[in-house]
Each structure stands twice: as structure tokens, then as C-alpha cells.
Amino acid sequence: LADLLKKHGKRCILFVNIMMAVLYYLITINAITFITYGIDELKTKKNKWRIPESTLLLLAGIGGSIGAFGA
Length: 71
Fold this sequence. Notes:
Strand content: under 5%
Structural class: mainly alpha
Helix content: over 70%
Number of strands: 0
Shape: rod-shaped
């Protein structure tokens, strides 16, 4: 790792920062999607107004597919 930092320096640090941002984004969007799908399932069981399917698909499409599958 030290040799890599010496050779590439700022580019390597920038890459790590970008990857961490992507990781945080994916964790956040999957958590939001999981919770939203869970709320939709609860509303279904109580015969209440449900979350629109377009909202659920949008959340899955922008990176929350793992959260959608888990719910």
C-alpha cells in the first residue's frame, strides 16, 4: 500500500474517497428501499393505501435492488 501511495499519490486517495462515497450511497439507498418495501407490505396486510409501484421501482432502480430483494 505504501508503494502504491508513493507511485500514484493523490489519484489513489481520490479513488478511495470515491469508492467510499459509492459504498455509503449504496448502503443508504438500500436501507431506505428496504424500509419503504417493509412499510408497503405492512400497509398491504392492513388493507390501507399502498406506496405507488413507481416509487418502489424507482428506489430499486437507483441502487436499492438488494434492499428490495431483502424485503
